[in-house]
Amino acid sequence: MLLQSNPSPFLWGYRIYVAAFFIFLAAPLIAAGAFAFNDSLFPALPWQGFTLDWFFNDTEPKLGMFHDRRLLRGMYYSFLIACFVASLSVLVGTTNAFLFVRGDFPGKNALYIVMVIPLVIPGVILGISILVMASDTANYFENSFDLELEFLRPGIFLVVLGQFSFITTITSLVITARLKKFDDSMEEAALNLGASRARVLRTITLPFLRPAMIASGIVAFLVSFENFNTTLFLVGSEAPLTITMYDRMAKVGSTPVLNAVSFFLMVGSGLLALVSIFIQRDKSVR
Amino acid sequence: MQQKDIKRLTLLLLFAPFALWILLLILLPHIGMVILSLREKVAPRVYEFGFGNYIDFAMEPIYWNTLLRTGSMALLVTALALLIGFPIAYYIAKVAGFRTRGALFLLCLIPLWVSDLIRAFGWILLLRETGVISTFLQWSGAIDGPIEFLYNDATVVVGLVYTVILFMIVPLVSTLDGMDNSMIEAGYNLGGNGFTVLRRIIVPYAMPGIVSGCIVVFMLTAGSYLTPILLGGKNSSWFTEQIYDQFITRFNWESGAAFGFLLLAFTSLVIWLGLKLSGQTLANTVAKS
Predict the structure, then answer these.
(1) What is the rounded (10 degree) CA torsion for B232, B244, A164, B269?
(2) B21 contact residues in A (CB cutoff 8 A)
(3) Between A153 and B3, the higher pLDDT residue
(4) Inter-chain contact A98–B91, Cβ cutoff 8 Å?
(5) B152: three-class secondary structure by DSSP
(6) Which of B207, B218, B231, B267 is the most exposed place for a label (fewest CB within 10 A)?
(7) How far apart are CA B156 and CA B122, in angstroms?
(8) What is the pLDDT of residue A282?
(9) In this complex, do A226 and B116 lie within 8 Å of one another by their Cβ atoms?
(10) What is the pLDDT of residue A6?
(11) What is the pLDDT of residue A167?
(12) Is A54 exposed, middle or buried (0-12, 13-18, 19+ CB in 10 A)?
């Protein structure tokens, strides 16, 4: 609480700056959400009155998001992909945490850096490199064994792999941080009391890690749901929501139904992010 | 002896997912990309190894201009994000009261989870000719006709700063949080003014956070696709757009792979330089936050 003892003009200026920053932060989000309730065919002023049609109306031209088949399908694919990515990356993140906190092997520090690197590779490059490898493999099997491996062609499987490749770094870092704070004497105590290794893991270590696992799973889910760059190159006919929305924006131009989806997504991810923060809040954050 | 075997087996089992992940999804694909980029098409279905794709890149000024433009704008965005974000992070970590602090940090985190697409969409609604700001300015009498704020470099920079600044603020807050207030007080007691304290105590302490934020922000900006295209229009000439163009529009994967490798090499070089100049390592910056 520095500087706070004497409210000087400097501090007031500082506060105004901070306030202006948060207005800057909120303005586009409010704009993206607000026009969902405007009773007009275009997301623009003037304000024509309040409506919920862009959510619930079931006829053209004001087809609401809950009746728009393509948007709903996109949402379903996004949800499916995000679930796979979240569970896979939490699983591997947990084994990585044990590997780097408990394990002892040559080259550990160098490999730890390697684990972080996927986070700083641009998403577009992850997308194209995985696309290239998958197609090469698929072509090889097709030419040599006349075997068509459909899952290696752009589609949900590749999208999951692409997102998993960098989201695992995030979950690994969060779970590793938590495991580092674990007090070893608790495990020793349990072992001394006659518990088996598996039982110690199940009743002591994993419950200790659970907040970090759930929180990083939520983060992974959200990052996957909103990912665009990596997905763009790996997407097949089952387009997730971000791609569907982008197509709509580029081809049809923006209509308020996109504002409705934006509003829905903002509320959804806001709530999930809050849940993850409250889960992690107990004692240690990050 | 048996105990030792079990330990080794456990280590192996823990190592397997890590190795598979890095090998199959990071290492091999990137090697594959480099190999593909070295392949030249000499005739239909006939390929040769060579640097043709890179020579094409070097011979065509539009390509390397775009890369340089993307790089310099990404650096500008990184610098702006640091300049704008640092006071905010300092306010959250050190100036605000306990309750305000949690609330402000939450406010910072929530937009982090909103997709780039929606954020760019929001800016379009605010800035376009028929958008909120133009309409408001006309209504208030400040301007006569509608103004188009979209599709220029300044807008792209604003949009990019907006999408990435939270990745700057969050690591800065966590680093500054760990700093003992008495260090700042000591600085003042020893006769330093605000600027000296900032330069000699706060900034050196926050260095890992600054470097970590800068790396992530730079990479995100240089690799971003949506914001430059949506806010900069069709001729925003961002390098990722060139990669997309080669891959999807022209189906020229060889040259697309070369472009991808060039972007990766370029951004890695900048980050390596940044780490060297600031005396930090990847392990104590990005890996920590």
Answers:
(1) -80
(2) 92, 164-165, 168
(3) A153
(4) no
(5) coil
(6) B207
(7) 13
(8) 57
(9) yes
(10) 56
(11) 93
(12) buried
Q: At B282, which amino acid appears?
A: L
- pLDDT value for B126: 86
Each residue's pLDDT tens digit, A72-87:
888 999 999 999 999 9
Q: Which of A10, A14, A21, A231 to mutate to test the interface with B (most CBs of B within 10 A)?
A: A21
Measured between CA atoms, how close is A58 to chain B, in angstroms?
A: 24
Q: Say if residue B5 is exposed, middle or buried (CB neighbours under 10 Å; 0-12, 13-18, 19+).
A: exposed
Percent over 70 (pLDDT), chain A = 93
For an interface test with B, which of A6, A22, A23, A25 has the most B Cβ atoms less than 10 Å from its Cβ? A25
Residue A199 has pLDDT above 60, yes or no: yes
Q: Report pLDDT for A164.
A: 94
| Chain A residues within 8 A of B108 when measuring between CB atoms | 25
Q: Which two tokens stand for residue A219?
A: 């983060």
pLDDT at A1: 40
Go through B256-278 and write b for each residue having 16 or more CB atoms within 10 A of its CB, e for each that does not. bbbbbbbbbebbeebbeebbeee
User: In chain A, what is the straight-line distance between the N-terminal and C-terminal CA atoms, in Å?
Assistant: 23
Min CA distance, A59 vs chain B (Å)? 25
Q: What is the pLDDT of residue A139?
A: 87
Q: Does A119 touch chain B (CB under 8 A)?
A: yes
Residues of chain B with pLDDT under 70: 1, 43, 234-236, 286-289
- If one counts every other C-beta atom within 10 angstroms of the C-beta of residue A268, the result is 14
Q: Which residue out of A129, A219, A254, A271 would a mutagenesis test of the B interface target, given it has the greatest number of B Cβ atoms within 10 Å? A: A129
CA quadruple A176, A181, A182, A183: dihedral sign = positive
Measured from the Cβ of residue A121, the count of other Cβ atoms closer than 10 Å reads 22
The pLDDT, as a whole number, for residue B289 is 47
Instruction: Indicate the helix (H) or strand (E) that contains A187.
Output: helix A184-192
Residue A161, burial from CB neighbour count under 10 angstroms (0-12, 13-18, 19+): buried
Q: Do the Cβ atoms of A63 and A74 come closer than 8 Å?
A: no
Distance CA(B7)–CA(B43), nearest Å, equals 56
Kindly report, residue by residue over A83-112, the tens digit of the pLDDT: 999 999 999 999 999 999 888 888 888 898
- Partners of A43 on chain B (C-beta within 8 Å) are 125
Residue of A nearest to B86 (CA): A18
ipTM: 0.85
Q: Find the residue in A nearest to B212 (Cα).
A: A120
d(CA A160, CA A221): 11
Min Cα separation A85/chain B (Å)? 13
Band the pLDDT of A285: cuts 50, 70, 90.
Answer: very low
Nearest by CB to B286, which of A98, A116, A136? A116
Residues forming beta bridges with residue B47, ordered by sequence position:
B41
The residue among A247, A38, A16 whose CA lies nearest residue B135 is A38
- CA separation for the pair A218, A220 (Å, rounded): 5
Residue of A277, A262, A91, A55 whose CA lies nearest to B21: A91
